[in-house]
Amino acid sequence: MSELLNRRLSLLSQGDNLSLLKQCLHGIERECLRVTEDGRLAQTPHPEELGSALTHEQITTDYSESLLEFITPALADPAQTLKSLESIHRFAYTQLGSEYLWSPSMPCPLPAEEDIPIAWYGTSNIGQLKYVYRKGLALRYGRTMQCIAGIHYNFSLPDALWPLLRQAEGQAGDDRDYQSAAYIALIRNFRRYSWLLMYLFGASPALDAGFLRGRAHQLEAFDADTLYLPYATSLRMSDLGYQSNAQAGLTPCYNDLSSYTDSLRKAVATPYAPYVEVGTHKDGEWVQLNTNILQIENEYYSNIRPKRVTYSGERPIQALMARGIQYVEVRCLDINPFLPTGIDLPEARFLDAFLLFCALEESPLLENGECGQCTDNFLSVVKEGRRPGLKLRRDGHPVELKQWADELLKRIAPLAELLDSSQGIDGHAKALAAQAAKVSDPSLTPSAQVLASMREHKESFSRFALRQSQQHAEFFRETPLSSEEQQRFERLASDSLEAQSKLEREEEKVDFDLFVAAYQASILAISN
């Protein structure tokens, strides 16, 4: 443990400081495909009974009309966050008819590329902007890739914690800049150590054979309908997922907030020749928002993002530059197909301890090829994390995954203890012990359990996933929401439909082309 971490642990374990850790906030976003009874992609529109995908704060769609996204509020107790996620699932199942929510991250057998429906958000300018953005994603990466689902874990430390650390460490400058620098330091450490999360929680070692659409690959046949890698933890996070030549040269630097926002701002403003060739219109219809490396900053696919809640009409980069980093969004988590909501409390508790470790531990700048080493380690683990004797690279030298994972868990243990003592529980220590057991015995990892279940039932990936989806549907349906909760969700749905309708009625009819131009100009107007 570094001297800096020791000092910070000591400071935070004192009196009132300890109770600060009860104020960390946790939010979860869970994506999942709607599928038919026989496990095919649902071609039905977003159910109106769930509300408006444009204006509902908790139930929306991601890329496809069939790809639901459930969003919890950010709450201090992760158990309450998970309870909120479970309630959203329960409500959804009251409105889905005979459809199911697909249990894993990798998609069901998909129809022809052009038959995957793009999400529609109505006729308002902002609704159309979201639709055209998704048309651009289809053009750039294909629709198939956009049907992969994941879990995003949003985490923040209380604002009052940063001034406390800044004063104790005698740092000049203001609290906001210190807070942003501390979150960027967390992200650097996350880049160093996130391979561990892929080993512990990766749950996509196999996929439906049709997913690759005949592309060349290095996967093995599990059966006639399934491709896999025997030691893979997360094919979702491998280079099978998003292959973007345009983004290949875009590695935002996590040395400070301004270099990060600068690299994204440039990418949103820099033309990319193959996209320029296509143009923004075809036969008079919009096909992408612009011909630049990124249409908008959210198009950059990363394992973790610095975030700040945006005001109406404000872009993510504008919010970060104006008011600094407020929280981080962890984006590399697979949906665990054995869990009804795809994530459980032990995983959330471990993530809290892991992220607190990343925030408080020494975090030097990523220099001398360390960025590339981080990427290589991550890709090694997603493709062969359970391979016996697998070696990663640390400081340029080979180290066994098992040895490094054990060492990391020992370094995270004091953070788990600190969180437990702040809340008067032992849940974080127990969550840590469960992860240590997976390091000792790879058969306990979700990725190993997926393959074991498929073998035991002699079934393809898709049959396994449908069976799990059916079990989860039963779980949610057998314990309905209270009538008050059900009515609350129904009210949220109808209010959101009314909000969308009002927006479409009252919006000053700015020509859509002008609206897009103004939206693009807003990013170019941000000065260095």
From TrEMBL:
Keywords: ATP-binding, Glutathione biosynthesis, Ligase, Nucleotide-binding. Pathway: Sulfur metabolism; glutathione biosynthesis; glutathione from L-cysteine and L-glutamate: step 1/2. Its EC number is 6.3.2.2. Coiled coil: none annotated. It catalyses: L-cysteine + L-glutamate + ATP = gamma-L-glutamyl-L-cysteine + ADP + phosphate + H(+). It comes from the Bacteria. Pfam families: Glu_cys_ligase. Residues 10-380 form the Glutamate--cysteine ligase domain. The keyword Nucleotide-binding applies. One of its GO terms (molecular function) is glutamate-cysteine ligase activity. Belongs to the glutamate--cysteine ligase type 1 family. Type 1 subfamily. This is Glutamate--cysteine ligase. It comes from Pseudomonas fontis. The lineage of its organism: Bacteria, Pseudomonadati, Pseudomonadota, Gammaproteobacteria, Pseudomonadales. The gene is gshA.
